[in-house]
Amino acid sequence: MMIEVLKSKIHRVAVTEADLNYIGSITIDEDLMDAVNIIENEKVSIYNITNGNRLDTYVIKGQRGSGKIGINGAAARLVSVGDLVIIVSYASLDFEEAKTFKPYIIFPDSENHI
Fold first, then answer.
1. Quick one: average pLDDT of 62-86?
2. What pLDDT does 76 receive?
């Protein structure tokens, strides 16, 4: 049996950009991506702590060390610059493997750095 478990979590980062006219996705500082083992084009869920909105999209790399968290495209209507969000991804694992799997979780500082 396969089950979905938390794979990666960036907890409480601030949105630095919301670009309605961009084609879509979320831009994440590459340092943050590396720290939680998220890759470009991976599907992620975004949970907006500030207003309760939730959405799914895919990741594009942001400039390393920039602290950038940019919500792009139609999703930009669901966030505002300065909103706090949680970014997560999940993985399908065998039930037994899932029992011992440890997710990658980080708690960035107020400037979105590790």
1. 97
2. 95
Catalytic residue among 8, 22, 45, 58: 58
CA-CA distance, 24 to 36, in Å (whole number)?
A: 22
Both tokens of 113, joined, read 């750095």
CATH 3.80.30.20 matches 2-94:
no
- Parse the chain into domains and list their residue ranges: 2-94
What global pTM score does this model have? 0.96
Whether the per-residue pLDDT at 91 is higher than 90: the answer is yes
**Is 45 annotated as catalytic?**
no
Q: Which residue is catalytic, options 8, 25, 66, 89?
A: 25
